[in-house]
Amino acid sequence: QSYFVPVGFGVEFPNYIVDVKKDPATGEYTEAIQFQCLERGGVRVFEGINFMSRKPTMTNDELSAMHHRAAAAGMNPYGAAEEQMHLVGRRDENLPKVDNNWQQMWRAIGVDKLLELLTESIEDGGR
């Protein structure tokens, strides 16, 4: 398991990578399962489970395999069972890139460079 703390809406969300699948030929990550859990005052106030894939569309068998891996990792009590989750649609990859005022502002203040630095840091283990 791997752990990092993303920040959203001014709150740090402990984020655990509980499963990854790699391409055997390239070693590149092709799928990941994340779990976030936030407690305040001993009360769990948020749980989030993310199934992520580099493929824009997964087959039912591929998605089912992710559910099985999540169950094997003990995540079903937290909402990882098929009947407890819903799919979030992805934007068609053939559409033109989004480049609106938000993207331009993020580039102007350097968020893109910060994200590149963060990605490099994660990829090299924070060394």
Provide structural commentary.
- The chain is an alpha+beta fold and 127 residues long.
- Helices cover 28% and strands 30% of the residues.
- The chain has 3 helices and 6 strands, in the order ββββββααα.
- The protein has a 4-stranded antiparallel beta sheet, with helices on one face. A two-stranded antiparallel sheet has the order 2-3.
- The radius of gyration is 17 Å and the shape is globular.
- The model has no long low-confidence stretch (mean pLDDT 82).
Q: What composes the largest sheet?
A: 4 strands, antiparallel
Number of helices: 3
So what's the oligomer here? single chain
- How are the strands of the largest sheet arranged? 1-4-5-6
Mean of the pLDDT scores?
82
Please summarize what this structure is:
By secondary structure, the protein is of the alpha+beta class. The protein is built from three helices and six strands. Strand 5 (29-40) and strand 6 (43-53) form a beta hairpin.
Defining traits:
127 residues; alpha+beta; four-stranded antiparallel sheet; two-stranded antiparallel ribbon; 28% helix; 30% strand
SSE diagram, text form:
Layout: E1 2-4, E2 7-8, E3 11-12, E4 15-22, E5 29-40, E6 43-53, H1 60-72, H2 101-109, H3 111-123
Antiparallel strand pairs: 1-4, 2-3, 4-5, 5-6
